[in-house]
Amino acid sequence: MKKIEKIDCEGKEYPKKLLAIKNSPKIIYAIGNISLLNSNKKSIAIIGSRDCTEYGRNTAFKFANSLAKAGNTIISGMAIGIDAVSHIGAMEEIGRTIAVLGGGFNKIYPKQNEWLFYEIIKNKGCIISEYEPNEEASSEKFLQRNRIVSGLSDAVLVVEAEYRSGTSVTAKIAKEQNKILFAVPSNLESKNGIGTNKLLQEGAKIAIDYKDIIKELKTKNEKIKSKKMQENLEIVNENKEYIELKEEYKPIYNLLLSNPKNINELSKMLDVSISKLNSILTFMQIEGIVKQLPGNEFIVNGESKCIKNM
User: Fold this and answer.
1) I need a surface site. Which of 84, 177, 178, 279 has the fewest CB within 10 A?
2) What is the mean pLDDT of residues 75-89?
3) Distance between CA 131 and CA 29 in Å, rounded?
4) Alpha-carbon gap, residue 244 to 159, rounded angstroms
5) Domain containing residue 214
6) What would the pLDDT profile of 152-178 be if each residue is shown by its tens digit?
């Protein structure tokens, strides 16, 4: 087995996404391709019922496989059922998958998935745990593990879930962490469809194709970029030098804000003589407030300093 890395929350390998969640682990243990923990690729958690249906298995595999093929990292909990199928689906493409355990590396649970543990490492995936290598897994640890599964992701996809289950808890955590939550619609008569259909009813985004997830992540990314640009613009504006307009400038400035105007138009609109207007406009040009265009037209100078109290 490869070397186990112990990563402190202040270390550069520590997943930056986990620093943003409530009650983030102070230390994580990792084995395999730890570069996935801070990859610039998007990561999607795929979760669902342990006692999944054939429909659930096929759906989880298809989504994981297609999303991995598109360059995304698939995250799950290496449990039997939907978790295991999701890891396998991702590995069939390029092995870009992360498993989060609810116990230590030397106490793999469930035992029947021990082969999957080694397969993920072999295929350049990564496995992490907040528990020391010899700690036994437990139901309480699985619930704690769920906040990390969601925390590492950009979006969470629920394939199948019973009404009250660990999967539903993870979905709730995803909402609290402001992750994009998706659910696959299910048969109304299936017990494994109650949880997913309820999530959709409560506002989760519907996923009928892996492209639905990619599109939504792209939209969110564009919104974040737009918000950052706006914040940067506000910072620039805060640092701009403001000038106070003289009272005699204000009527002219207001008329030129929308579009250029000829000096003759301004004279009529303001009932001011052309000679006086010429004098005022000359000073406004010198101060950089307006600029002259061909045809004796004037407009507010877009490169001028900000105007205060207008």
Assistant:
1) 178
2) 97
3) 7
4) 61
5) 5-224
6) 999 999 999 988 788 988 999 999 999
